[in-house]
Write a structure and sequence with these properties.
The protein has 5 helices and 5 strands. The protein is of the alpha/beta class. It has one domain: Rossmann fold, CATH 3.40.50. The chain has a 5-stranded parallel sheet, with helices on both faces. α1 links the parallel β1 and β2. α1 crosses α5 and α2 runs parallel beside α3. It starts with 5 loop residues before the first strand and ends in a 9-residue tail after the last helix.
Length: 144
Amino acid sequence: MKKRNKVILVEDNFGEAQLTRIAFEDQQIPSEIIHCEDGEKFLAMLSRPDAPLNEINYILLDLNMPRIGGIEVLKKVGRHHFWCHLPIIVFTSSCHESDVLKCYELGAKAYVLKPIDFEQFQASVQAIDNLWGHWNTFPQLPAA
């Protein structure tokens, strides 16, 4: 079985994507970050025959994005017989209770508010990776 070493970052804000990459580097998290600028590009990546489904540690999903937003991504992923097993962590600035509830109803594994303070941002990234990158056990997914 191949080692899981990929984190998919679905984030439309270039600055926040860079901040996430810097947090991974500063915390010495040895993952390859695959950045998808919106939900549409993320779903297209998952649909490819060579999609690295069994190499993905987790997905960091922003909610408010153009084209296909995070809620719609969760709906589409949840309906797919292979993708529904992928751990999606909503990583967003939206603190609306309705968003939190909807994301959990649609299968999000966690809902993490992006801290404004960079040290807290780094701590959040490290905590997410500690659980989903190191301690979590994954099912082996069949080829799509």
